[in-house]
Amino acid sequence: MQLVGVAITLVIILFLTMYRLPYYIYEPGNASALDPMIEVDQASNSEGDMHLVTVRGGQATPIYYLWSKIQPYHKIYPIEKIRQGLSDEEYNHIQLQYMDSSQDQAIAVAFQEAGLDVSYEFDGVYVTYVEDKMPASEVFQAGDQILSLDGHPVERTEDSIQYVEQKNAGDTIEVEIMRNGEEVTKNVELAPFPDDPEKIGMGVGLVTKRNIVTNPEVKINSEDIGGPSAGLMFSLEIYDQLTEEDYTKGYQVCGTGTISEEGKVGRIGGIDQKVVASDEDGCDLFFAPNEQGAENSDYKIAAETAERIETDMDIIPVDTFSEAVDYLKSLEPKG
Q: Lon proteolytic domain: which residues (predicted)?
């Protein structure tokens, strides 16, 4: 009888800790110094650090779900709202592609601000996701490189879009693919998109992989962190290493926001959780997307969160990379 009780207890423990619920939970992550992740040739050193701030996420177990229900900065979402029909592989692949693009844009912005030139080498067109209800779902996989359509080389995403636009629903295209190091030829039928019947296509998301060329060279190792939200902080760290002036002024500088090639800072998700993470990791100031002073901007949410958790960290609204640089220039060195 005692063995039965132990077995039942073990089953309950395993269920509470291992069973996967159809929910995804986000919580405050951490603020990681960017200096170890970014290497600019002949970089200058700084007294402080620029930080990338993350949100930690994972699929809910029963115990994790119950715990998160009572945590103020844990957010629970139905998993289909996060994945939107994508497999784990497709979702992760898209997030890493966003990160790659964000890094290139950050390099371009930092070099432009420093008065230096950049150029690009294009390295193919890749599948980021596949529409489940389109013929492409039986042909493509996330990560496939599109080499040609009906024998026409595809070097950029625009090549594929322009070729497909000339076709009609029901037409078949011969696609040459590079998959796991092997060239594969497939036929795919064009069809209307389920959510936009006026538009036809193969039913895949594509991205052009390009390598940015700079002098001095920039190397970034963000490991398995995905998404575009570190763009602003990447650009600030690169600029700080490129220039002789120490823009950290000895402070621990945190922040978040996408970055466009024009230097505009964009909205991100989980701003309140990132403020909490930055405060817990001892940051002195936090840059937040101002969104031109919009009513529910990331900056306003960040400022409200900072007040709620009673942090001493300053929350700074920015619309552009240049505004962030100007703010850092105006700081007195940390005493």
A: 221-331
